[in-house]
Amino acid sequence: MRVFLAGLSIVAGLATAAVTIPAKADPAPDIGNWQSVLDQARGQTVYWHAWGGEPRINDYIAWAGAQVQERYGVNVVQVKLSDTADAVAKVLSEKTAGVDDGGAVDMIWLNGENFAAMKRNDLLFGPWAEQTPNFAYVDVEGKPTVINDFTIPTMGLEAPWGMAQVSFYYDTARLDSVPKSAQELLEWLVKHPGRFTYPQPPNYMGSTFLKQILTELVEDPKVLQQPANQVDAEKVLAPLWGYLEDLQPLLWRNGQAYPQNGASLRTMMADNEIDIAFSFSSGEVSSAIEAMELPDTVRSYVFDNGTLGNTNFVAIPYNASAKAGAVVLADFLMSPEAQLRKQDPQYWGADTVLAMDKLPADMQKAFADLDLGIASLSPSERGTVLPEPHPSWMELVETEWQKRYGVAE
Amino acid sequence: MLRFFPAFTLILMIGPVCAGLIGTMLPAFGYLPALGGDGISIDPWRDLLRQPGLAISVRLSLVNGLVATLISFSLVMLFCAAWQGTRIFAVMQRLLSPILSVPHAAAAFGLAFLIAPSGWIVRAVAPFAGWDRPPDIVTLHDPMGIALIAGLVAKEIPFLLLMTLAALPQADADRTRQVVLTFGYGRVVGWLKAVLPRIYPQIRLPVLAVLAYSTSVVDVAMILGPTTPAPLAVRILGWLSDPDLSHRFLASAGAMLQLILVLMAIGIWWGGEKLAGFWGCFWAEGGMRGRRDGTLRRFAAGAAILSAGAVFLGLASLLVWSFAGYWSFPEFLSRSFSLRLWMREYDMLGAILWTTLVIAVLSVMVAIALVLGCLENETRRFQKPGQGAMLLIYLPLLMPQISFMFGLQVFFTGIGLERTLISVVIVHLIFVLPYVFLSLADPFRALDPRYGQTALCLGASPARVFWRVRLPLLTRAVLTACAVGLAVSVGQYLPTLLIGAGRFATVTTEAVALASGGDRRMIGIYGLLQMILPFAGFALALLIPAVVFRQRRGMADHNRG
Questions:
Q1: Is B348 helix (H, G, I), strand (E, B) or coil?
Q2: Which residues of B touch A107 (CB under 8 A)?
Q3: pTM
Q4: Which of A65, A73, B89, B237 is deepest in the core (most CB within 10 A)?
């Protein structure tokens, strides 16, 4: 036992001495001088932490990496995550250990809530995004969410790389008509109990569904753009809870169990467990048909009064090892060529963040000529894009939902 | 030299685990400077107790863990009692290795597709029942956690059976059984009265490991378990992945609660042991012969076959899915099959399997060397490690992995080892070593000391006794321990991802990432891929002794178990 204690004290000593191997500090790239960024980036390896749940998306990321390698000599490695939070945790643990340089994460595919959290805790590098060459093509005027992630100004801390809008889908072989508003959905469910559900919050898609309902039912949607603690939140949320009171017992499995994520909704459609599902892009549905996950009779639609839309971003942690390389990669992701391929449902099927009128004529034509797939909605069919509420609403709704419906007894 | 082995092993285990524990304990009491927590407070605990449905989550974890362990243990004991030494027993033994090598998550996915309302069982019935849509009933994610218990039982039975098999020869089970039979006892009752008391002390630690695992399991619980609310470990994972980073304090407090919960479960089990021992004495002394045990024996066989069958059918469903085209309800088989997805993944497979193998083999080699060193040391010195030291070795198995990983990550980053192969192997070792120890310690300790004493008397050196006498006698036990270790290493997800910072893509990191997308075809492919290496390991553990001892009947018998 004594030997053991001696050993333990050695380890403790090692731990406290914490001999940090001096990391190769990567000086912050000078974004204004693009050539210097390119020079600095050459030879760097960018570890891009991105959700790895979709083979199509992984393939697209691999393609983008190969392109950047060929053009700028930047090596890209995708670190496939099952949850973006793992990357945030990584950066956080490095900050805890005092590793402020030479971190393991060079770029993260981020969503609004994680962005808000990382920004709040000073875990991001920047600003850089708005000074990159291809940002000039981004549709800042037409798509305000490219610089406002869930109402939080991005301030150049992250670069937009895709648009998302809620769209519903159903199998035309099974249904003739579909409900096109929150109210109609409820009426439809009374006639078809158990044939609809949503992923369990705080899953992203599940929370999105609740926000969609909230946005439709709230008296004045503008109030959702403010932080929840600045208004009478209880009163604002009352219509949502009233609605759910009626909806919950009509859900699949009477609301006793929920699917885990948007992807499981797809599987449930294929299994004929539900009749109506939703996703964050109608191109995703076309891709799923192509991948034989859904029958080719599935079609997309949106609610009459519009559906929530937002933007996907990539960000660079404050202690990234290859900041210049990450900036170059992010810039490439915003290029017309990369965006064109991203919108093609053959490869991914996500909407572009670019403004068509800013593009050269040949690129405009290439976008116009894209075959969006049988289940995708054209821009004109997509209807109104509703803005995402401030992140505080999402937190509040998730907490309250958990109290009311997360405990079934 | 040899005497340093135990200390060195403990340091290798304890160093990182302590670091991890401290890294979890501090935030549980409000200290995490990177997130602005500079002081000590009990707010995280207050926060934790306020979580809706916490009591239910706690109850689910505790009850599920205890019930699943009790059922697995009882079935394994009953099966051994009823069939040890028969042909069906030998057959089950052969079925074991493939099931053991199935990763938990893959088995759970397979099972889920069997019992779901839209799953294979319903699809088999649907044409006759005239169903064109799945019945709207809760079979998966049921609030009571029955599906979860079933999944855990199906997966733990092979592990416990394997551990029992390794212990049987040392308990002299064959002869004992025959003696009891000649006294007129029924097979089952005779075994339970005479053999079980000698087996149990040897398999107690594996049983406790199963208990700890079942109480804090995450992946299986997510696939099969209740969600409204989920068992505690799943909720901790949820809090840890919450975009609101301040939830990390809450998660750390939850992780501490989970640790307490596991200790409680062990305490309850221990109490049960005492009661059973007390009552068992009366029962044994009562002299009841229990000769009419035909029904009980058939039940034991039925339960064993059912659990093995469920896993195999589930795997078959994974295989079918990995080739399936569009496949809707209520079709029993997919309309079309294609190699497309396998072809697409093919290019990457070599590199991924290689990385997985390198990490697994390195950690298993280190683990087996350390464990053998420790065990040989205690044999030569006639001393057993204290209970405290044993508990420390098993600590990694009792801690909910995800929370203790955060602290560990900080530790490795601090000493500049993170992202290296060394750190990944060390972190795998933390989980591999306890299992290797579990598998090997009892067979090693139970080896008849007279073999060694005889060799010493004949003039052999202690080293020669180890290499020429003990090791050959333990060939099968050592190889089995290696195979278990290999399976454990291959199955590691969080440690590989977090400590390796994503630099080491293994079959499991790929599988879990793809499983989050929910496409059953990809789940099928990677679930099967996860099995390949452990399966090969177990197959070798069976084959090698058979080949090596082909010409030596006694050795072959001894190493058959």
A1: helix
A2: none
A3: 0.86
A4: B237
